Amino acid sequence: MAPVLTAQDLRRSFGGVPAVDGVSFDVSPGEIVALIGPNGSGKSTTANIVTGALRCDEGRLTIGGDDVTNRPAHTIARHGLARTFQIARVWGRMTVAENLLVAGTDQAEETITAALLRRRSQRRRQIELEGRVRETLDALSLGHLENERAEVLSGGQKRLLEFGRIMVSRARVLVLDEPLAGVNPVMVQALLDVMARFRDDGCAVLLIEHNLQAVEETSDRVIVMATGKVIAEGSLADVRTSDAVVSAYLGATA
Fold first, then answer.
1. Fold annotation for 5-90+169-253
2. CA 54 to chain centroid
3. Is 108 a residue whose pLDDT tops 50?
């Protein structure tokens, strides 16, 4: 299938020092592409450019063929992109169910005028949204926590809730920034199962992750970065044979 997310020659420097130096890649629907590399290799900076948190100095970014280069994060989100962060971000004072309901709300139509003019259609959408929330709670085994404030959840449960918000929002392009960091082994498998579901549902997933076993289990392709550049691409088995990769990343963690 044609790529839905395409980055071409992305560049970003800080104080004259390149953090992202000519990075290009693409991700197709139903594909998980892992972005790996040692600390300081430019992975998170690349993710921040893709999601609109940072502007690039040069390069081009498209989603579904639309140029979204240096557009703000909320504009890129409206093109169907969702992201997670290295530390799970939830609305702590809201309940689990409320977190999911907000994720599925069409903010573009949340005005008094729209509510009056579209009262019946909005009610239908509300019923449909409540059904999606219920299905998501059941799929993630969070139903028993639906009325709990999100702030009381464990780290792994908060990550599951983040994934649940993605499921409810129906985003089609996902940027997952170290989703397994600090998660206990039992919860890791639950998160991997959800990532596989994202792929099966046709999402394009850019995964930034240090857990190489998880990368090997879930990813269709691997992109290796070092010093702001892409130094290898292919399956994890393929890139392991690269001298540059062994030197820059794998060798350092062996």
1. Rossmann fold (3.40.50)
2. 16
3. no
